[in-house]
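fyi for ur records
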Amino acid sequence: MNPRLIILAVILLQLTLPAFSQKHTFKIGDGEFMLDQQPFQIISGEMHFARIPRECWRDRLHMARTMGLNTVATYVFWNYHETEKGKYNFKDNADIAEFCRLAQQEGLWVIIRPSPYACAEWEFGGYPWWLLREKGLKVRSQDPRFMKMSRKYFTALAKQLAPLQVTQGGPIIMVQIENEYGSYDKDKEYLGKYRDIYREVGFDVDLYTCDGPSQMPAGCLPGVLPAVNGLDNVKEVKDIINKCNNNHGPYFIAEWYPAWFDSWGLNHHVVPYQDFIQTYDSVLAAGLSINIYMAHGGTTRWFWNGANMSRKDPYMPQTSSYDYDAPIDEAGNATPKFMAMREVIMKHLPKDVVLPAVPEKKKSIAIPEFRLTQSSPLFENLPTPIAVSTPLSFEDFGQGYGYMLYRTNIKGPAMGLLKISQMRDYALVYLDGKRIAILDRRLKQDSVELNVPEDGARLDILLENNGRINYGYFLNDNKQGITEKVTFKGKDIRFWTMYGFPMIDIRNLKFSSGKTATGPVYRRGLFSVNDPGDTYIDLSQWGKGHVWINGRSIGKYWNIGPQQTLFVPAQWLKKGENEIVIIEQLKLGQEAIQFLDHPVLDKLN
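which gave:
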């Protein structure tokens, strides 16, 4: 090959690579962040790779860059990578290293938030369910067992991420210690141990903590940058950080909320950009660094949604959609909020910075109504059971997520109150195969009157994990299923058979046509797509359950709203025939389904 052509090709390649593909320096300076020894303002947006299909990572990162962001922040959820104790997964959608590499290729820096506690409306705040099997173990504490397990996890995580730190030519500029710890406790020694663990496993970039304004004194750690969440008044931000950081910056708003998340049964949250855009402008004009929570929310699929609960507020599980009314919507499109924020950011960028053009809205498609004519009743797909004297929780059974069937026989004739103590979280109660009650933890329902016939009856209780609590006082009280006991007429019911449905693999279900179900039923159907595009499954006529398309979890649905559709990315559809499987818990005869070309996230029933 001509040497001149080789030289020209090398020059062109260098021009197309992101500016920081070579080695750079990033430091917390005396009052400012310093990139390559020059003052640097972090203009960041949050997006969680676990909530975005891997096929869409690059697109969403490109949208962040198009918006004007120079950095993205992401939580790393421990339970997403270690679903079973000692077995780590960093492949496919859990490939955090690849997400960081793509961010670098898009010209973005990365802030990593491995915690190990995240909150984030994520199941158990990011902790693995199997921690709850350890008797007396306390998460978020100096419990030696907990610290040992989290150290092992961080060792595995560092193998993925340490080579991608800015100190080694990568895009990762900062790592967060814990998360809003000041709202939970004030143990500085505990925080210090995590600082030491991070260093020992190979994280050598700068560290920071973040807390709400009133919790910062409890949550900050001497020698580590304190950042503030949920505050956007420039003077107040500087004052609160100065109090924790010897009267100087850098000043970093680690979570700034231009919207909020949704919970089942409550109103959809929308915050017009007109309500905050001037404040955002003032923060950037003052030179403060800021991270938008969320720049792009995405979707919480499978059983990964969390729940909130406090001593004052009831149990509130979160929706599958994590659209968050974010500037980049659930499907990755620019919204009016995006355009307004981009315009503000452009005012504060160096004059020589030119942002990529905003892409056109992605194609979305509607699919006319069709029927799911094949069915498979849940009670005809019973796995191998175990027999127990008293009912076990999910965790003690050895299962993290999904459903659990508790079965026993009750002698008759008898009438009285059946009570499930500390029921978690949603139960369907059957007597001789007939559903007699729906019990919902949100509504503090845990009892039903039974009328047992003379010959006795079979009692079935199907429990669903609706999402472990991810924040606050009840974090360590998070077991699922029947966590205490079941009584009838005040006496304990003993001798149960338990069947676990972890909902990990649905490939072995046996479907047929025309079957009648008395309990929850899997329904299956096929549909054709000529030209795939993003679409939204309309589940407003269904009851409660879970959807898979082509074997992939699309998420949970519940007709109480506000979410009535589930987002399906175009990349998960095939040209030609596609399969949909739904497990429906309430409306057993429902078969008709359709797909819309737009989401419905704001309809309460």
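The longest strand covers residues 521-529. thats all i got for now
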